[in-house]
């Protein structure tokens, strides 16, 4: 079985109720991510926490130095778990994540976090393109409704619209219970 890392992407305070960029169903997604994290810790799998920080204090969320940019307590890192900061949706872009995973002998990546339509999508595609076997645990991910061209896409449809192509070509898309079974 290939060495697998759990990568928790942007499970940060601003995405939760009361935060500056609340996502649909972030609480249950985070609870599932916490279950994945507990299992990875028991199994001794490498764990990497990714936190997004927008480079401008004028950004709508994840502003530098704010409580909203901090990792949520539900998945707080413990000693020995790496925390990488990114400034773009792709968690591999200028973060050292690729080197970290390769140095640890990781061949597979399990992803959870937010947002489904941005950072999960970008990171899953990059991981697959870099040769990792990718699993996205979809019920441990959260999305946000979006509007484009006068059309509003509800969060549930946004999430499904991104999980479907990931499942088609880039990743095994599964749910927490099945993944942990």
Automatic annotation (TrEMBL):
Residue ranges of every copy of the Isochorismatase-like domain listed in the record: 4-177
A Pfam family the protein falls into: Isochorismatase
Keyword line: Hydrolase
Enzyme class: hydrolase
CDD domains: nicotinamidase_related
GO molecular function: hydrolase activity
InterPro entries reported for this sequence: Isochorismatase-like_dom, Isochorismatase-like_hydrls, Isochorismatase-like_sf
EC number: 3.-.-.-
Superkingdom per UniProt: Bacteria
Protein name in UniProt: Cysteine hydrolase family protein
Organism the protein comes from: Tritonibacter scottomollicae (Epibacterium scottomollicae)
Lineage: Bacteria, Pseudomonadati, Pseudomonadota, Alphaproteobacteria, Rhodobacterales
């Amino acid at each position: 079985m290939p060495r697998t890392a759990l990568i928790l992407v942007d499970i940060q305070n601003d995405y939760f109720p009361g935060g500056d960029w609340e996502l649909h169903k972030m609480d249950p997604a985070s609870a599932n991510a916490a279950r994945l994290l507990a299992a990875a810790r028991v199994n001794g799998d490498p764990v990497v926490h990714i936190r997004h920080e927008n480079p401008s204090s004028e950004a709508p969320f994840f502003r530098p130095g704010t409580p909203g940019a901090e990792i949520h307590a539900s998945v707080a890192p413990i000693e020995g778990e790496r925390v990488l900061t990114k400034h773009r949706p792709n968690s591999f872009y200028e973060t050292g994540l690729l080197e970290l995973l390769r140095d640890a002998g990781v061949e597979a990546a399990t992803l959870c976090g937010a947002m489904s339509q941005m950072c999960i999508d970008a990171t899953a595609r990059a991981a697959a393109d870099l040769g990792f076997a990718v699993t996205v645990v979809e019920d441990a991910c959260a999305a946000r409704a979006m509007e484009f061209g006068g059309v509003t896409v509800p969060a549930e449809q946004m999430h499904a619209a991104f999980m479907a192509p990931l499942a088609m070509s880039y990743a095994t898309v599964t749910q927490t219970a099945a993944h942990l079974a």
